[in-house]
Specification:
homotetramer; 285 residues; alpha/beta; Alpha-Beta Plaits; Rossmann fold; 7-stranded mixed β-sheet; 4-stranded antiparallel β-sheet; 8 helices; 13 strands; 33% helix
């Protein structure tokens, strides 16, 4: 039996001399080995950010770690998050009618490429119930007559809480949450949306992109915030199109890039590779 | 001695049955061989567009060709443009202080990869005079105190007309032309500008992109129109960036993609591969 | 009811003056409208190749078309293939144990993005029977003790012939066909395999790629020929890797690019966009 | 005046518990601040590798640092390299007749994007003398009748030693060095060569790639070793081609990717971002 376990420690604090050395020393004293470490200093705000991947004896738990880290955390005003890698995150996927992103996430999970459990699917339609069923995942059909309806969100919240959900993935979920809901799950909702150069306001963006004759269509995965589609960007991708591509074909190509970009963003989140600082997502990939 | 010469014929007209056959027959009757042909039908406007690359005896000139094509041009309301490939286009490059795009164009031209003559460089600064000099190209330093200044534009126009310029390439020229000037050279000015997902209004776009934490920066080459940076898109490209890239590094990466994208757009224009229809650039690449 | 139908006509013959005009005239006379046409002249062998997409009245069938085209086909030694687009191709997918490519093809097909019927899946293992079942596609489990076993291939051939299969897609099928089988289905088998820069001979290519520290892994879709993995290349793609990627992670990234590249190759084949000439696949994309 | 200076410290040693902490502690004690640190453990050989970017008072020099690091270096069998960032590397560029890579390096250097001095250009032809001259860089024309000629290499070595050259960049230098020469400059020669999927043995690779109908051409930058073109890979890139691209056009596209890939590799080397271990280049990008 493996007597070791691993954790990812995410640290942020005002930048200062000696931070790396102090953290390394404290972890060493606590009996931890540093498997990987990556750091970043935000020069705009002078904030130091570090991701440390450690291993240690199973006898060492969060409490022990906290005890060793509290003194320097206090001294340097550090925010410290410890996540043990054997505690997998619990994920809920929100969908509407399109299933290209859902399918990709389910297959990646089945192949062991997403470090989580996928505990349930919530949808405002019943179209994708059979997909969830095939993968033996509970499917909750909750119609959403109006985006942000408080009763609906109460229902959704109840399910999420009953299942101790850690991450909400909006896999082409075509409804908008209320600010209350979004704030409640701040940093825990990942959304995917199409992106264009230049950007288009208003509806039917693919039609606009077609009329404009763009040569690239793209997708952006980001954390949901109360400012619609303006949350911290986790990942982006593009794919080439030409005048020969119909709107339908552009949408198809867009789907291809959406699912790839969303899957990458979700994987990085699950591996605790992302720290959001000052509305920017720092991704230690 | 080569007794043959070649032309590119660009055709557009309302779509209708038999267009391809009628054009092919007329060209055949005129003694032309079709080396390449590509077509596109714009379904929004029901307009047929074709690019035909032909070869024929040197004895056959534009007049002969016109004579054979006029009947069907009249019948089908065709706009027909004939450009002989041995008549190279005359190009003027506009620059300010940055020379990454200028250098690339000059080197490509020297290597025989741009089918044109580069007849002059116009700049609102004298910084790049030596670059032009090395390549033995006349450099016109015309200060532009205010964008769109009519006297300045008169000076510029005089030089362009004296040199029979066919194409103006704005290779990071940081001044804006008046609507009058832009209209005068409609479809003959290619501009390059940075592009971001999402797009940023206002100044210092790279600073905004950095603060937003974008993962891609890009560039768009387009024909200049009176709507700033909104002309028909010829080509686009992107390059990856991460939180590690400073604003300076993002600008450097942006330059790399700008010069590549601009060079492609210019080459396609010079090879008569582009037809602008309904504010979209159809590129027969 | 739509009184029109469409066909793709693939033509190849020794290059000569007037080919395009003669073909266009013959098609016009036969009552066909040319929706799209693309051509290519192979300068090494002096062979002219053209793909013509036409529409015409339903009363005009292959026989009528042949009658109009035979005279010029004879005169110019043309090989002509006519494929009506309402006659969808019948596809068999071969798999072993990995299902990433299979899933992608099934989903694309379901979404109407592959112009074909998927009539059956053949595998040397029973692992993926349930995937086929979900999509209601017959699954034939035929163990293959030795690659190229004549009895096994007889069984496979019987199934393919009973089902009038037009295209065999090897979606990570880990067995090799005999030369006899491969020749029988020449130009009708599409295979996907990983590709590396530089290429590696021998087994465990991902392990070799890892040890070599490559920065890109790729995939190539090609027609199967008797020279293993050396058939005409239809499409290729790559994805970035770094020293941080374990062999497992490199294989995962490789899968992502394999399925994308294979799907594109299959789609182009189904839309009759590919002509193989002189062991090169000309793709009119 | 800036009283601080910076260094990059590259460390490698057998992997062991506590390495990161011990190094961080020693550097802290020596008065260094860790600006950035990245590490990698090669699981095949169980070797720990770390790149540490530090800043400290100018009064602290290599000697002081060595004194603080020697005890742990001895204890853990560490190889330690310290490079002060204000000591720029001295670079020699080797060329033959093509100048696309040379130009790019010279322009990047002029723009402050390459942290080095470019001290001289050596060529077996005199074609590019004027390019070097424009940038005021000494040009040594040394004809090379036979690759690896000892007298020629003596001449080259003399120049390199007289100029204290730290890095040799082979920017499309079409001659091969002797094993003796290559070993003498092990880890100090960066070469660029084209790469194809699949790879082609023998001469005229672009002609072979064309005949094979490849859809991608690429370039690989690597350290030169005695095994031709088989040294540790630093960076790779690809660009799309199609059947429409002539051999000439494929070469042009190849040049575009060659210069980009070479420039990246050189920049990373100059910033001490690369450690070669077990014939793999670990790039801390």
């Amino acid at each position: 039996m493996n007597t070791q376990h691993e954790a990812v420690i995410l640290v942020s604090c005002p930048d200062q001399l000696g931070l790396v050395a102090h953290l390394a020393a404290a972890l060493h004293k606590a009996g931890c080995n540093i498997l990987d470490a990556a750091q970043y200093t935000d020069t705009l705000t002078n904030v130091f950010i570090q991701r440390i991947h450690i291993s240690c004896e199973r006898s060492i738990d969060s409490k022990t770690l906290q005890k060793h880290l509290t003194p320097i955390a206090d001294e340097f005003e550090m925010k410290i998050n410890i996540r043990w890698t054997d505690k997998t995150k619990r994920v809920a996927i929100f969908v509407s009618k399109e299933d290209h992103c859902l399918h990709d996430l389910l297959l990646l999970h089945r192949d062991g490429d997403l470090h989580c459990s996928i505990d349930l699917v919530i949808s405002n339609h019943d179209d994708l119930a059979d997909v969830a069923e095939r993968f033996c995942i509970p499917y909750h059909h909750i119609p959403v007559p109006n985006s942000g309806d408080p009763e609906v969100e109460q229902q959704q919240t109840a399910i999420l809480e009953d299942n101790n959900i850690d991450l909400l993935v909006l896999a082409r979920y075509m409804r908008i949450f209320s600010d209350t809901f979004t704030k409640k799950y701040a940093g825990k909702i990942i959304n995917i949306h199409h992106s264009f150069l230049p950007a288009f306001a208003g509806g039917k963006p693919y039609h606009q992109a077609f009329e404009k004759g763009v040569k690239l269509v793209g997708a952006t995965a980001h954390y949901a915030t109360t400012e619609l589609d303006e949350g911290p960007i986790i990942e982006q991708g593009v794919i080439r199109v030409s005048h020969k591509d119909s709107v339908k074909e552009m949408i198809r190509k867009g789907r291809d890039i959406e699912r790839t970009v969303l899957a990458r963003a979700v994987r990085w989140h699950l591996e605790d590779r992302i720290i959001v600082h000052n509305n920017r997502a720092i991704v230690f990939s």
